[in-house]
Amino acid sequence: MATFLGRYEYQLDPKGRVSLPADFRREAEGSRFVLLQWESTHLTLFPSEVWEEVQERILELRRSRPQAANHLRRITSQAVNVSPDKQGRILIPSWLTEAVGLEGGVLVTGNVDRVEIWDPEVFARTTEDETVEKGIGELAHEIFG
User: Fold this and answer.
1) What whole-number distance in Å separates Cα of residue 104 and Cα of residue 13?
2) Which of 12, 37, 72, 86 has a CA-to-CA distance to 137 between 20 and 30 Å?
3) Confidence (pLDDT) at 132
4) Is the pTM of this model over 0.85?
5) How far apart are CA 125 and CA 120, in angstroms?
6) What confidence score (pLDDT) does residue 144 get?
C-alpha cells in the first residue's frame, strides 16, 4: 500500500488543476484516484486500492443500514475519478473547489493512505485549534510509544 506523508504548497491553475507531489505520484504508481469531499473542510484523494476498501464499507452499510441510503448517496455523488496528466496534475471540478473554498494557493498533504487537498488557511485554523493542541501530547504517546 502507498504511504503519503508531508505537505506541499501549490497553485490551483485557471483550469482547476493542481499538481501532485512527485513522491505521491511515485507511491501511487500511476494509479487512478477517487477525489471526494466527505468532510466540509477539505477534499480527499483516495488511491484505487484504498478506495476499493472504502467502497466495500459503503456497500456493507447500504445493505445493513437502509436508513443510511441518502447519506451514502450524498457522499458518492460528491466523488469523481481522476488521473494525473503527464505533468502530474489532477483536474478538480469547479463544484468541488467551490465546496471547500479552494482558489489560488492549495495545500496538498499526505495522510498515510490518502492525500488531502486544503485551503492553507483552513488547514492552519483546523490543525492549530486549541483542542487539537491539548490532545496531541497524549495521542503522540499512543502512536510513538
Assistant:
1) 7
2) 37
3) 63
4) yes
5) 9
6) 75
